[in-house]
Amino acid sequence: MAEILLVEDAKFFRNIIKSQIESKFGYNVTAVETYREAVEQLTNSNKHFDLGLLDLNLPDAPDGEIVDIVTGMGVPSLIFSGHFSEAVRDLLEHPSVIDYVVKDSPASLNYVLNMVDRYFKNSANCALVVDDSRVALKHMETLLKRFNFKVLSASTGHDALNVFNENPDIRLIICDYNMPDMQGTELCKLIRAQKSRDQVCIIGVSAYGNQTLSAQFLKAGASDFLVKPFLTEEFFCRITLNMDALEKVHKLDELVHTDLVSQLKNRRFLEEEYERTCQNAETNDLSLACAFFELDDFKTFNEAHGNDAGDAVLFMMAREFERHFNRTSPLVVRYSGSQFCFLCATDQPNNFVEEMQTLHRHIINRDFRFGKQLLNVDVSAMLCIASPGKYAELLDDTKRTLESQTARKGCFVTA
Hints:
The protein is α/β, with parallel strands linked by helices. It contains 15 helices and 18 strands. The strands form 4 sheets. It has a 6-stranded mixed β-sheet with strand order 11-13-14-12-17-18, with helices on both faces. Strands 2-1-3-4-5 form a 5-stranded parallel β-sheet, sandwiched between helices. A 5-stranded parallel β-sheet has the order 7-6-8-9-10, sandwiched between helices. Helix 7 (157-166) packs parallel to helix 8.
């Protein structure tokens, strides 16, 4: 769990920040109101602080001394001030100061919360900086690392493409316009041919800040554009806005592709993923295996035990599937009603058959607890395997064959 040191002498502001961070994000906040108490926490506590939230004007340190002591111990910090001044801005030159917040409106609290949230989320994101200027490259790398990103870099377009292809976790690319082997807009187009706007953010940068260049980047697929030299706070704000937007798209995508009852992926996701899986199997000369599991007489089960019990069993079965495969292949979705579908490209189809048979035996022999009831379910299963070139109707054929086996309920059948 992340540890945050909050140093703020205004009781109301201190208490509300602490409670909001702990309730919304689950981070642990140590809140103090004086310089002395902060020093005691830093020097006498066993805690390692991951982030500091620091008020510049404290009763026993009115001139921002708290910044030197906290950042001097390697704690990245967000600073508070009651007013804006160039002196406050100048603190951004400190290598461990992320940003400043002026406490002049209720919006200040939201800004603090968003920056804290974004800072810790950035640790799971990888950024790629592309610039042929060593000075500019180093500067942007430093800022991104300060903002808690994992950072990769490249000085040419071709190097950038290689780094991008070798690191599928890249979520942010900052790309200069002028490079020795290609323009930044060309690199942007090449990246967009592989990943869309909802998969990676691209921010174009250039010392030539004309509207035409900005439009060229945006038309090439960039998410935003910055003119060099840029202000540090503008740099962080643009990144925050773009990463927040990317995250919101991912959340919407999860809602669209996740079954609410089982919390597995749904039929829509499977239908969108099916062609990609077929192409991967074809390219690597693999067999494609498809299995359907269906709870028999699910309507009768719900009538006997209630819909809540039926939903609970579907949820518990989904967790059994996840545990059995330990989050590895195959793709598992709730297809519809009481049907689950498994899809897997494999070079060992016989092993997959055995694995699915083992899973089937486990499910039908398992009791599911709902309230005070122990519920046992009958499950029919059908597994079909297609060789390269014969994938097209595999999904429909497997489902259709399962539904035609009405006389063999509770059985595991291969075809």
